[in-house]
């Protein structure tokens, strides 16, 4: 695996896609150096971690990262966001023909941080992408993962886990743009909210273009509201331009604790507080088990437990 720092003139930059909103465009026009992580073709690489550190309280920064998995390569890349400040950045993910890439993006910012980030992924023929997004910290965090298909047979799995506290705003916008035949996308995002003015927004868009026959897609969002004063918005969208598809659908739900689950646990001698924590752990268990990196999974489990103990859940 190669890790390079390159200038704006590098011809590879932009291969993953072009900015789709004003903040992404500003970030693209303002960065001075970019980091390019390349997995050479037919190579199976070890887990690689890229640490993104904020510019510091009261400061502004622009960033650009590109992750490239060449033909038939396999790799896992962790993007670990830490620190504070205001940051706008773009992450390009280029998955070559037959390659398999897993990207785990952890946004564990300090409480003052503001981040707006676009993840632009392009999948080649029969390429596979697993994209795990975890948003825990920060004051306002907005991440927009987009997947486009450059050849038939592409397979994208987009998973998201987020936990919003009092006064915190987490906004996640997924977009799967199916323009090639026989491709697949599956989106599963789950969030929990606690505290006054805790806010989450999930917007999931899927577009199946006329040429994308044989598409199979589904998107799911679930939100668990733990306290009064929290709000979760969930907006799934599905646009289909051809009837020749394998399947398409979406589902969304927002609610509080399941009283039956709590009663079942308490009836077996488990105190209410411990029962509530078990329900939340079970809520996130599906997504945590999909992250095949033990140290990252354990870190996230500890962070969720700390969030719950903070308000006595």
Automatic annotation (TrEMBL):
It comes from the Bacteria. It holds the Pfam family SUFBD_core. Residues 56-283 form the SUF system FeS cluster assembly SufBD core domain. One of its GO terms (biological process) is iron-sulfur cluster assembly. Belongs to the iron-sulfur cluster assembly SufBD family. This is Iron-regulated ABC transporter permease protein SufD. It comes from Actinophytocola oryzae. The lineage of its organism: Bacteria, Bacillati, Actinomycetota, Actinomycetes, Pseudonocardiales.
